[in-house]
From TrEMBL, chains A, B, C, D:
Swiss-Prot/TrEMBL cofactor(s): Mg(2+)
NCBIfam families tied to this protein: PFKA_ATP, PRK03202.1
Task of the protein: Catalyzes the phosphorylation of D-fructose 6-phosphate to fructose 1,6-bisphosphate by ATP, the first committing step of glycolysis.
Record key words, sorted: Allosteric enzyme, ATP-binding, Cytoplasm, Glycolysis, Kinase, Magnesium, Metal-binding, Nucleotide-binding, Transferase
Binding-site residues for substrate, renumbered to this chain: 131-133, 168, 175-177, 228, 252, 258-261
Catalytic activity field: beta-D-fructose 6-phosphate + ATP = beta-D-fructose 1,6-bisphosphate + ADP + H(+)
Biological processes annotated in GO: canonical glycolysis; fructose 1,6-bisphosphate metabolic process; fructose 6-phosphate metabolic process
Organism per entry: Membranihabitans marinus
SUPFAM superfamilies: Phosphofructokinase
Keyword tRNA-binding: no
Descriptive protein name: ATP-dependent 6-phosphofructokinase
């Protein structure tokens, strides 16, 4: 595809929101403007693409959003887009607005939808990885991950004060249904005694053993960080299971929850989003399509949607192993 | 009691920890030193008083704690202290260390214990209201309340980002088993559509009505703040009840939890704690006993423990009513 | 003046911005709507009143601003408004838009302008005290003061880390050209060794003496908080003067600066702003004019503009004296 | 060198403090304990090595420091260590305490000292890059850089509120005497109109041009981020120079200053510090010496001190160029 074919670029955010999405939108708008292209915002993700919620975004409209959590384009999950009729309608919307290419910001679901769509229709699509879960292959970090870590660690720091004052064990649940990135980093960053993630298979018995060792060493309070998707259940269930073995421990449960998705993005996420947004635009103008843009080892790289979704993005083994040394 | 009788002052924190307790401890130590008195720290509240966990605190030991959450003296709930034998042992500990007077920092339970003890034994006691719940009579604010509000509001601000991005209703539960101070202020401060507290008796039907009105006015997302102790159950239960009436609303639940107890105290709480700590010391030296120190209308006041515990400290009616105008 | 005369209320922010101004604007809009009145926003303060920068604000437009620093109405200082011609033009703008009453949010300058204007023209005016300086009489707290304290204290906490690590003395300048409220509270809240404010007249010699005593007691690092308007000059000048007496001290200077004006308002400031905004509206509807609304001892009170500007609002003496005991 | 030779490892922090140093110290202590080695803390950097300020650190002593800014070992710059006599005394201290190896945490000065020392004496030395400046070669990030960015961006976000409210240009100075890493990332992350760093050579004329373009495009407020070491002088001087060309702009200056060094470390910095601390220990046990440990592309790498100090660690050109597209 030649450069001159692309004059109008649409951008949307889809799936769970992540801090930094606005910085990415801003970057798409600014970079497009720099190259003389127009940007159209699609509201509420693919649902808005189907329903025609789309309007031009001028550069001044993104003038004060780089620091804001959430997404000015709103986000949603669209079931209709996973039907051929839905996608057909979406295509017609794009055509009706003379959209030449799309940039989609989101996670796995967003990418899957974009992949299917771009196989069926001749609208070039570039994906920007925006999800707090960091579970997209083809980039060291997804937009929002770093901010979510800082939000989680800040919450754990506060809980630490009360755990310390009461000599308690706290079981703290952070987001991560399929991956343990958030829990692993939060666990290391908070000096947790135990970290339970889908990838490390720590059993209740092993956790009890770690807590016992801590008590023996004179540890007065302990933090256990669990990912939603670890095999032993949520934090409340784990606390109960542990209590059967260690009834003398005074324990409490805390579920950090949705606040992990919000807040002003960290500097890291803003810079990452800015780089990915601008690179998505130049990629489209260079004729790329059906690819996720990412940064690996500080270099911009492109990955097929299919690989971005399915290739392994597990935490480093050495990082998981290190937790045994430090706790 | 004459001033010269008091040379050694013990200080303890008890019950739930609250941000600013360390600032109060520091102030007690510094003010005592100013008047040439020695301070002894009792660890883990009344439990430590019984078990003799007590040691001298030098002024430099409190040199870098004013900004720290939690309590360097640790805290606990002591059941033994509510037995005559427990209190007798506690008294003997104090005598063994030549303690002339005690300052206790905590909430209702702490005060009740102090009241009973000071009726039985000739150790003057002054209480400093330290609890995030703001449910002690005889002071406009308890230490920790202001910080807990800022922690809660910061969490709600983050949830707001994701609520806004997804056009969702969030049911957010904050602390407050018997009083709605935290929920009321957090609700007003976050512009909540609904606020459910023990004191306002809002029913599910009324809440549904408020949410409906919001939708009618074009409100795209809503926040509902609930105190633990409101009559309709926790946030999860309320969300379910609302869903029966408004199944079309996309809703989520978040329980802020224990992080409300931690974190660096706000400036307000540090100044409050500093004033109350110093005033507790001068009160003891002035011969006061069995009283809670507080600040009302910017003046130091003293209240009998019995009144501090039992007199009405409900939120202002006008504040509750205002929420109908603003939401 | 009767209630029915007032149908259109204008609102503006003027002078230095303060966190919580947006919460006050929101409250004015919501309360006005509740009573069936329309609100018009005037942009850039009195300058916009002169130039006709005015437009209707709908209730949904203030739906997501309660947590935002700054002011959506922008602010400015207007020299033209202090001329009779300027005020005449301003009046004509209001008449042209059928404005029946005005609510002005700001500090001393804002109030002075409102007082002059309301003496010349028959537009009822109510002032809401919005300034980080807390120097308006007739209210315990001005909007923004509490947030500025937390911003300053958070900055000082960070500086404390590096002061502690290096065993240094830090001279930290906070805002306050005419009043020491911010410096006094920040100083108490950070456990400062010295606090220099316009109201306490501490000399360099006395400060040197305090620092010397600290060193003698083994204090390894010290913080000195100075208000811009203290009599000894800015933090840099004070640091130099101290160095002449104590050349062995390793010292650094930090000027917190304009960041004290920004940031998300604290819960306290949002609740305060919400109460004052709603009360300003009901005051206008009750026929009040030429008054500042405030909260004293948790009750809404009204003060003549002239008193609000000129009556003494110095920090409590006892608070200033306490710093000698605690440092 | 064989593993069994190393039984006692000393650790120190030197130069400017950086958030995450404590997390690194903790990791050194924990990893050493894991391998059955003892750790000795040296206080106040090389100065303490000379003067014998050294004592055993038990593992529980680092149990609650991972989240604290500053350094529990204190830090200082030692001129004496740059004399042969000073180093000889330092060596004797180490020998007197039977220290077998040293881990030094700091920046360029720290590394230079370690390099000289390890060339003269047979004490293996490993360096951990701890400096907010990110100017050490051989690691993608130095400990403290990420936190400093978030501190700076948070300050700029607050200033943004007031810049936006007043339609002002703010000239904001961040740390960086020799490198522009902090300013560049802060500038991109805050959407700055201009970024002046030692590496990009932007002149006043070019900056004026950028500001003019912004005004022409309707930009109402602008942020200019300058590194201390840019060629045009500090923020105040630049503001003056700009004012000569654009006298109509209302501008303000803010110097973020020392608060950039403090505060709780970000999750990223804690994880980085934990990994580097543990790797420094295993490196020593593996017989490595005179090397800096770093992480490049998520892998632990070792670099000669001489390279770590002198090899080019400038910001990526593409990152600098991108700022022209996005501002």
């Amino acid at each position: 595809m030649s450069d001159k074919a692309i004059n109008r670029i649409a951008v949307l955010t889809s799936g769970g929101d992540a801090p930094g999405m606005n910085a990415a939108i801003r970057s798409v708008v600014r970079a497009s403007g720099h190259f003389g292209k127009h940007v159209y915002g699609i509201y509420r993700g693919y649902d808005g693409m189907i329903k025609g919620s789309i309007k031009r975004i001028e550069r001044h409209e993104v003038g004060n959003i780089i620091h804001r959590g959430g997404t000015i384009l709103k986000t949603a999950r669209s079931y209709e887009f996973f039907t051929p009729e839905g996608r057909q309608r979406a295509y017609e919307t794009l055509k009706a607005h003379n959209i030449d290419a799309c940039i989609v910001i989101g996670g796995n679901g967003t990418y899957t939808a974009a992949m299917i769509f771009s196989e069926e229709f001749d609208i070039p699509m570039i994906g920007i990885p925006g999800t707090i879960d960091n579970d997209i292959f083809g980039t060291d970090f997804t937009i929002g991950f770093d901010t979510a870590l800082n939000t989680a660690i800040d919450a754990v720091d506060k809980i630490r004060d009360t755990a310390d004052s009461h000599n308690r064990v706290f079981f703290i649940e952070v987001m991560g249904r399929h991956t343990g990135h958030i829990a692993l980093h939060t666990g290391i960053g908070s000096g947790a005694t135990g970290i339970l993630i889908p990838e490390n298979n720590v059993s209740i018995e092993e956790l009890v053993d770690q807590l016992r060792k801590g008590v023996k060493r004179g540890k007065l309070f302990s933090l256990v960080i669990v990912a939603e998707g670890n095999k032993n259940g949520g934090a409340a269930k784990i606390a109960e299971s542990v209590a059967e073995h260690l009834p003398e421990l005074e324990s409490k449960v805390s579920i950090i929850g949705h606040l992990q998705r919000g807040g002003a993005p960290s500097c890291h996420d803003r810079v990452l989003a800015s780089r990915l947004g601008a690179s998505a635009v130049t990629a489209l103008l260079d004729g790329k399509t059906n690819k996720s843009v990412g940064i690996i080892n500080d270099e911009i790289v492109f990955t097929e949607f299919s690989d971005a979704i399915s290739a392994d993005k597990s935490p480093k083994k050495s990082l998981i192993e290190m937790t045994n040394i430090l706790s």
